[in-house]
Amino acid sequence: MNRIHVLGLIPFIGMLGGMPFANKATPYVLGMPFLMFWIVLWVVLTSVVMAIINTIDPANQKEEI
Amino acid sequence: MNISMLITFAFLVAAILLAVRSGLGKKMSLEQWAVGGRGFGTVFVFLLLAGEFFTTFTFLGGSGMIYQVGSPAYYVLAYMTLAYVFSYYLLPPIWRYAKEHSIVSISDFFRSKYQSSSLGMLVSVVGIIASVPVVVLQLKGLGIIVSETSYGMISPILAVWIGTIAVTVYVMISGIHGAVWTAVIKDISIVLVVVFLGLYLPYHYYGGFQPMFEAVQAAKPAHLTLPEKGQSLSWVISTVLLTAVGFYMQPGLFAAALSAKSEKVFRRNTIVMPLYTLLLLFVFFVGYTAILQVPGLKGADGDLALLRLSLQTFDPWFIGVIGGVGLLTALVPTSVILLTIGTLFATNIYKPLTKTTNEVRVAKVAKLTVPVVAFIALYFVINGGNALYALLLMSFSLITQLFPALLLSLFPKNRINKYGASWGIIVGVSTVVYLTVTKTTLATLFPDLPQVVKDFNTGFIALILNIAVALLVTMATNKNLVQKDSITT
Question: What's residue A65's pLDDT?
Answer without folding.
Answer: 40
